Amino acid sequence: MSFTVSPSSATTPLVLALDVGSTGTRGGLFDATGRPLSQLRHKVHHQFTTATDGTSTIDADQVVAEVAEVITTVCRRLREASGKHRPAIRGVGIDTFASSLVGVDDHGRAITGCITYADSRCSAQVARLRDEWDESAIQQRTGTRIHSSYLPARFAWLAQEHPDLMQRAARWMSLSEYVHLQLIGATAAGTSVAAWTGLLDRRTGDWDDPLLEQCGLERDRLNAVAPPSEPLVPTGNHADLPSKVWAMVAEAHWSPGISDGFASNVGAGGTDPRSAVIAAATSGAMRVLVDHVPEQVGSGLWCYRVDERRSIVGGALNDVGRAVSWLESTIRMPSAEELAELLGSDPDPDTPLVLPFLSGERSTGWAGGARAVVTGLGAAHDGGALARGMFEGIAASYARVAAQLSEIAGTPERILASGRVSADLPALLPVLADALQAPLTPVTIKRSTLRGTALVTLDVVAPDVARADPTTAPTHEPHPARAEYHRQRLVEFERVYAALIG
């Protein structure tokens, strides 16, 4: 059964959700129940600029143009579909990939590329800061470790390698903040976006002044922090949007940006502490949304403040979909049917052991400079054996997160699986269920992150409307007989990790 709804059957008010991800910018309209309107969406593809030195950037103004194109296209399609009786758009929300950084000049224009979460050029500064700073104290205040994904090490790298940019930049902001500044002339750092920088005091929901001082960064070079309930007020700076399009969104609630991790959890149905969500896209994560600020954060995890009272706790993997893409372009992969049969069969102790850190590790060891390790690979192994080893390594990485997560949030009543990889590669899910020894329920709606952004905005503009539940597929039950195999593989995983990375 389709989860979408036609414009004529939609429950008002409508919200426009925008999502800037690793592979493109997309947007679509949702009704007040959280269902997407059929045919009223658009996507513009893009890719990061990468290099062997760890560079991972994207042009910030290119993304602004992409967002403007998406808004324009979706609004025009709504006009065409609805005629004179089109419903009003009461909210506009945007999520972006987390932990982005753009430097702007006095006129609000970008003087740097947008540095993404995957940029590892500050790995040397990570090592230095871990020696010089009290990382444990910083993690308990901000919920984040010192890592190449977060801004303290990135600012240290900029100060060392590009001091001219550090001097020239009047302000530093995330990608969503920059998009808002260019499109509507107003901006703020959404609480969850600020949390993902590694600079937010998770207990106060404001910038962490001691850490700003350590970074040599004045508070006025960052935007104010605002939760989703505090709207941005457009100043009329909408040159990239046609006047008829602007008229459709000008009076909307423009929510400050939110992180894609927060949106992904909400969109998949992980809106309470009883539900953990495994996200499997280009990168991956396992998260639980809790209705308080936890007192302590496990060393391998992060804890992000997302609004006035809630936090999201979990861990992240750099390489899930990225690992699949690498396999597809590098080895002779089995067919989809062969792969499903291979991954669904009883595990083979002769399978190569893979630590799947193609672009560095986040949770649980936070080794930004880590690279993938393959052990036990012999001449008799084929592409299917290497693929199985990679998928078991991904499953082991999720299991490492789950073990620490249970110490803070308890054992979840259900685990939901969402994201492109879980949909395109369903054969991975039984391996995950076996490695976690827990039932795993696939969420079958598409674009759950985009839906989550819509739901966060709807919580403000239509709080009293009941939301539609996302559709799911049959639950994958774990095989108890395979538990010991995965336990032993995890022991070996940790042994190799300690010897070569940890």
UniProtKB/TrEMBL annotation:
Q: Does the keyword Transferase apply?
A: yes
The Carbohydrate kinase FGGY N-terminal domain covers: 15-230
The molecular function GO annotations come to: kinase activity
* One Pfam family hit: FGGY_C
Q: Which GO terms describe its biological process?
A: carbohydrate metabolic process
Keyword annotations from UniProtKB, A to Z: Kinase, Transferase
Q: What range(s) does the Carbohydrate kinase FGGY C-terminal domain occupy?
A: 309-456
Record InterPro entries: ATPase_NBD, Carb_kinase_FGGY, FGGY_C, FGGY_Carb_Kinase, FGGY_N
Q: Which family does it belong to?
A: Belongs to the FGGY kinase family.
Q: Write down what this protein is called.
A: Gluconokinase
Organism of this sequence = Candidatus Avipropionibacterium avicola
